[in-house]
Design brief:
Layout (H helix, E strand, L loop, with lengths): L7 H5 L4 E7 L17 H8 L1 E8 L4 H10 L34 H5 L5 E6 L18 E5 L19 E3 L2 E3 L8 H15 L6 E6 L11 H7 L7 H15 L23 H34 L6 E7 L30 H8 L12 H4 E7 L1 H4 L4 E3 L3 E2 L3 H8 L16 H5 L12 E5 L2 E6 L2 E5 L7 E4 L15 H18 L11
Helix pairs in contact: 5-8, 6-8, 7-9
Amino acid sequence: MSTCSPSAENKSNPSPNIIYILADDMGYSDIGCFGGEIETPNLDQLARDGIRFNRFYNASRCCPTRAALLTGQYPHQAGMGCMVDWPPNAEPGPYQGYLSEDQVTIASALKPAGYQNYMVGKWHLGEAPEYWPLQYGFDRYFGLISGASSYFELIKQQKRERKMVNGNTRWEPPAEGFYMTTAFSDTAVSYIRQHNPEVPFFLYLAYTAPHWPIHALEEDVKIFEERYLAGWDEIARDRFAKMQSQGLIEKGLSLPQKPGSIPDWDTLSKTEQQEWARRMAVYAAMIYRMDIGIGQVMQALKDKGLYENTVIVFVSDNGATDANISRRGLNDPDVPIGQRGSYTSYLEPWAWVSNIPYQQYKKSSYWGGMRTPCIISYPDLTKGLHAISRQEGHVIDLLPTAISLAGISAPEQYQPEGIDLSPVLKSQADTLLSPQRPLFLEHMGNKAVIAEDWKLLKTTWSEGWALYHLATDPFEKNDLSSEKPEKYQELMSLYTEWEARTHSFTLPEKYLE
């Protein structure tokens, strides 16, 4: 890798600190500043001190999004076209199941410019020690190497054993008093407090919340349990109206119809309503506790006089999940949902609410799988701005944006797929970067290409492709593939070229589960 040198502008102005915060399996409308009823005052404050992007995309699932975020590449180019160690025994290449060893990351790109690089939280880019964070440019790391785990302990079942690591050393949580989200927040705060303010830092804070199993502190659950007795129909209507009042979606649009698999709330018995309300209360409590931790990180920055000169980005790795994971053999049905020993999820009805107004869920090429709330706050440029940008963004843009804000250049041999979004910050959200580039997705047979106001997509359960005109059909309801054959072919050609360039060919059907 060639050395990155500061630009002339950066010599006279201190390089900003950069914090990227990633939520896990959180839907588009869950947090307050994106329409949700869950109290997230600290994320709401970041929105007031920054810009919300309402057209921001991820790679539709955990591992691919994390690879794309850190590398500025599509997941396949970084070895993470699928999941960690899936497919099994894969050859080196786009589906190898670990982050490529020679891959440039945000941390390795910033290091030659004097940045200290910290990571806290979920890695999920390689289980073997040679693929852990310190091998990719990070100076300090604490977190969960593996995917989902209990928030109160580590899973020890042989096929599902989870690993936590401090630096390059395995770490075991204490038997009592441990909660994963709090541990991540506390560690991030400690890194900031110990940091030498004479040099800039990059912190990648990757929470597991609110990924299943839905586990929360009982004191937090009690805040929400009564609230969700109102039911998903009323909560969905309220969220949609709030998003319209906030300017995130147009006022002339109507709430899309609920999936036929979800019953009307008032058809449920009182006992059923109480159990369903409990599920969503636990999920909401997980986001609430994450927001408290984000507030503690913000306060630590303020205590050191670093808040104004720190860029903070918040996104989610994919949309909400409708998965039913109680079948995995880890759930004790006699333990209340959300407590240690339970191991379940909040299921499709609430996942639908989380993704309002978009359809489908995690893994899908519909917006419900790949659209994320995004907040970028940089008080030196955006304090009190509270703006909304219509600029399309993608997690592949976060590496080029970081190196631009740091005033450095990417290594000569490195060609990021993403673009620099910093002009949007500097223009106070009014800029739309030109030309609009096409964006792509492939994950386990779910495929998409987005080009200007059009989107062509295919899902694992559909035989053909669907074409949507996003300017008039933002919720992807009216398939125009038969009516617009020329546009269909235009986008299909773009996808085919990208597929060949990135080697993102669909895995054999036996791996598409």
